[in-house]
Amino acid sequence: MPAQDLTKTDKKHQIHSLHHPSDVAEQLVITGGKGVTVQDADGHSYLDGLSSLWNVNIGYGRKELADAAATQMRSLSYYSGYAGTTTIPSIRLAERLMGLAPGMAAVFFASGGAEANEAALKTARFYWKALGKTGKLKVIARQYAYHGATLQTMSATGIPAYWKMFEPRIPGFVHIQTCYPYRFQGARPGETVGQAAARELEEAILREGPETVAALIGEPIHGAGGVIYPTEDYWPLVRAVCDKYDVLLLADEIVTGFGRTGRWFGLEHWGVTPDICSFAKGVTSGYLPLGGILMTQKVRNAIESVAPADRWMHGYTNSGQPACCAVALENIRILESEGLLENSARMGAALWQGLKEAFAGHPHVGDIRGGKGLLAALEFVQEKATRESFAQADKVGQRIKTELKELGILTRSRAAEGPHPAAGDQILFAPPLCITESEVEQIVDSLRRAVRAVLGS
Ligand code: PLP
C-alpha cells in the first residue's frame, strides 16, 4: 500500500499520543530500521537523531532481541508475577539489575515510564505511611520536567502544555525552578545555579512544611523538557537537602538510564544514590515494553515491614512479563559486550564538540548543551545579549526540524514556550548509542545547513 493510503487509513482509525489531526499531514510511515537508520514507506532513509523517543539505545534491527522474545514466547509466553508466582526471565533480570545499580536492593517491574513513575510516587506515599508519618504526601517536582502522561505523572510534569486540557491536576505537586544554568532566575551573588536551585528546593520544603513533603522527583538530566544539564554541584546538594528534611529522592532515569549518558544511570556522574529510581525506555531499547523501579534497602524494608493487611497493594498485569524481561536481558548483554556505554560517552563528547565548533559563534544560538553521553541540545534566541526567544509564531525550532528531515535527519524540536523563565526554541538530540563518528558529523553538518536555511546564517 502506498504511504499516502496508509496515512489516510491511519487518520481514519487511530488516535496518537499528543494527538491533533493537523499533524497527520506530516506523518511518516516507518517500515524498517538498521543501526541508527530508519526507512519510511516511500523508501526514504533517515538517521534517527532521537532514538525514536529517546529509547532505541542499541539501535534498530538486532535479531538477537527478536530471537530472545521468540524463544521465551515458545517456552512460556506469559505468567503473572503477582505474589505467589514468578518466572525465570524476571528472576534473572532482577538479579542482573542489582548488579548494575549500586545501592539498590530490589526491583519492581512495570510496562513503561509513566507506570514506573506512578509506582515510585505511590511507593513514596506508602513509605511514609509505613513509618507512621502520614502527613508526608506532597511531592516537589521541577519546571521543564517530563514524567509521563497519566494523571499523577502529568501532575509531576513541569510543562504546562501537558496540563492545559486535563486540569485540575492531582493536588500536592509543588513545582520549583530546575537547575537550568542558561535561564535560572534569582541566583544570589557568589552562588552557583546549582546552589541557588538547591536553596530553592530547601525553601520550598520549609514553606510547605517538611512534615508534609514526601519526595522530590527529578530527571538527572532533563529529556523532553529541553535536555537541560544541571551544574556539577546540583545533585549532591539536592541529596543533602532531601536527607536534611527526610524527603525521598526519586530519580526518573527513564531517559538517562541504560547507557544514554555513558553510564548505566545518570546520577552515577555525581555519585548520588536515589531512594527510588524509575527506569523504562532503554532497558529494552524499545523492542518490547518494560519499565520499573529500583529501590534502596530502606524503602524495601518499609514494604516488607508492614502487616499483611497494610501491604504494598500495587501491581500490574504485565509486571515481569517474561518475553519483555528476556529482551531486556539480551539488550543489556549487547550494551555491555559491545561497549555501547563507552561509545555513548565518546560519541556524545564528539557531538557536543562538533556542535560547539559549528555554533558557538552563531548569533542566534544561545546555549549548546551536552557532554554526558548522547544527550545534546541547541537553544535558539533572537538576541544573544538579552537571551530573548523568537516569537512562538516564527516556529523557528519546528522549521529547523523540518529542514533536518529534508536532509535525512529525524529529531525533535521544542517550541519557544514554557513555564517562567520561558525557554527559547530548541533542537534536541539523543541518537542510538551505536552511532559512529561519521554519523555524528552528518548530524552536525546537516544541522548547520538546516539552521542556515531557516535563520540565514
Ligand atoms: N519519564 C521521562 C523522563 C520520560 O522521558 C518519559 C517518556 O518520554 C516518561 C517518564 C514516560 O514514559 P512512558 O511514555 O513510557 O510512559
Task: Give me the number of helical elements.
Answer: 13
**What structural class is derived from the secondary structure elements?**
alpha/beta
First-residue to last-residue Cα separation = 41 Å
Strand fraction equals: 15-25%
Give the cofactors and ligands.
Answer: pyridoxal-5'-phosphate
The description of the largest β-sheet is:
7 strands, mixed
Give me the count of strands.
Answer: 15
Provide structural commentary:
- This protein is an alpha/beta fold.
- Helix content is 37%, strand content 16%.
- The strands form three sheets. Strands 4-10-9-8-7-5-6 form a seven-stranded mixed β-sheet, with helices on both faces. A four-stranded mixed β-sheet has the order 1-2-3-13. The chain has a four-stranded antiparallel β-sheet with strand order 11-12-15-14, covered by helices on one side.
- Helix 3 (63-75) packs antiparallel against helix 10 and helix 11 packs parallel to helix 13.
- The longest helix has 20 residues, at 340-359.
- The radius of gyration is 22 Å and the shape is globular.
- It starts with a helix and ends with a helix.
- The relative contact order is 0.15.
- Pyridoxal-5'-phosphate binds next to helix 2 and helix 5.
Main traits of this protein?
457 residues; alpha/beta; seven-stranded mixed sheet; four-stranded mixed sheet; 13 helices; 16% strand; globular; binds pyridoxal-5'-phosphate
Give a nutshell description of this structure:
With 457 residues, this protein is an alpha/beta fold.
